[in-house]
Amino acid sequence: MIHIEIPQDVAFILGKIRNAGYEAYAVGGCVRDSLLKKIPKDWDITTSALPEQIKEIFPRTIDTGIKHGTVTVMINSTGYEVTTYRVDGEYLDGRHPEEVEFTANLDEDLKRRDFTINAFVYNEAEGVKDLFGGLKDLEDGIIRCVGVAEERFGEDALRILRAVRFAAVLSFTIEPETYKAAVKLAGNLSKVSAERIKAELEKTLVSDNPDYICLLKDMGLSKVILPELDEVKDTLGLKKALKAVNKEAKTRWAVLCYYLESELNTGRNAETGSISKKVMHGLKFDNKTMDCVIRFLTVSGNNISDKDIRIYSRRLLNRIGEEDIYHYLDFADAVGCISGDSIGGYELLKNAIDDILEKRECFSLKQLAVNGRDIMKECDINGKQVGELLDFLLETVMVSPEKNSREVLIEEAKAYGKQQL
Ligand code: ATP
Ligand code: MG
């Protein structure tokens, strides 16, 4: 009997349900990850008990998805999803089952799951139950649908992207029948919501094999959900760059977007970022990530022309912001837009940035030794002119950081005011 380590809380929940006379198992991803010696993100529990019965057993529960049979059991401050065995009804829209029906039969519940490696259950009394040869697939590194692949993808097209995602995350290959069915039913992906598509693409991108994103192209999936990818000719370059950067989502998205842009926007033009904006809007990105990716693209499209590496670095910090600067460096290095001859390449640039940050040299308005109020008081100017003056002072300090003191800047401001305002 295969034994896996389960957290105390999970053992407690399984034990309590079983003592009340029902079946209960840990199920799905947590069992798969445990068998792979990875630490599971969360522990899902499947049971023959009905939601009402679970609520009678545990004092603190939340009705998370009671219609679908899911109750969250709270132990201390952690929640565990406990779901009643169910059979999904017909998927008339290829997205949501019309209705779910509860069943007392574990096998029925496991049959509705997507892949053999996601259809294990475990409890300490019975060990791992493997109805569909998942253990062998796990050993061989194979993503295979439970049952007939075409039917499974027909019911829920999101599973097609989940296949790609699990292949990328686990470094597995997609079994030929499953692969063929995915290719055949690619069109059904048009029914899947943008949010769910984005989530799967992102999990693929932040995996150990971000280059598997190109499977979308090979399998004809991108023509339905990301047609811009089909235009990328240098897929080798894209794959290499994706693997070269850190695992942060925004860095990986920025690399992908960089390639989408460079193929479709012929020549560097003012529109850099327009294709990515469209793609990210379509995928319902949050504004913060989208802004960051667009900043990376526009700055890399490069209009910082200083030859002095420290001035260049301060301008870079000004444009990118401290929070994202190392992600940017990583990105820029991977796509090859750090120009070696003018500023000396990645290492020198990184050292310069480290040093500027350590010395707290000024590269933003909020670090200036004077603010708008100081300027208005000292220079007798109106509110409108303050902005222009502050920009001038920041420019001065980015070139000559030693000038970032109140006295010097007030002098500079007065001189500028006399000449220009
Ligand atoms: P992870 O949480 O690491 O993303 P997971 O396998 O736990 O992976 P979840 O989305 O949390 O994935 O789903 C839990 C389980 O529910 C899966 O292991 C699988 O058995 C089942 N499942 C999830 N989504 C689907 C789906 N679209 N079709 C069929 N079964 C699914
Ligand atoms: Mg999970």
Summarize the structure.
This protein is 52% helix and 10% strand.
**Count of the domains:** 4
Q: What gap, in angstroms, lies between the N and C termini?
A: 84 Å
Ligands and ions found: adenosine-5'-triphosphate, magnesium ion
Total count of helical runs of at least 4 residues? 23
The count of strands amounts to 11
Query: How much of the sequence is in beta strands?
Result: 5-15%
Shape: elongated
Biggest sheet: strand arrangement = 3-4-5-2-1-8-9
The secondary structure category is alpha+beta
Mean model confidence by pLDDT: 93
Q: Low-confidence spans: pLDDT under 50, at least 5 residues?
A: none
Helix percentage range: 40-55%
Largest sheet data: 7 strands, mixed
Task: Report on the architecture of this protein.
The protein has 421 residues and is an alpha+beta fold. 52% of the residues lie in helices and 10% in strands. It is built from 23 helices and eleven strands. Strand 3 and strand 4 form a beta hairpin. Adenosine-5'-triphosphate binds at residues 28-29, 41, 44, 113-114, 118-119, 156, 158-159.
Key features of this structure:
Hydrophobic Seed Protein; binds magnesium ion; alpha+beta; Beta Polymerase, domain 2; 421 residues; seven-stranded mixed sheet; 11 strands; single chain
Question: Topology, pairings included?
Answer:
Blueprint: H1 8-19, E1 24-27, H2 29-35, E2 44-47, H3 51-57, E3 61-65, E4 70-75, E5 78-84, E6 86-88, E7 100-102, H4 106-111, E8 120-123, E9 127-130, H5 134-140, E10 142-143, H6 149-155, H7 158-170, E11 173-174, H8 176-184, H9 194-205, H10 215-218, H11 222-225, H12 227-230, H13 235-244, H14 249-264, H15 274-282, H16 287-300, H17 309-320, H18 325-335, H19 340-343, H20 346-358, H21 372-379, H22 383-399, H23 406-420
Helix pairs in contact: 7-9, 13-18, 14-16, 14-18, 17-20, 21-23, 22-23
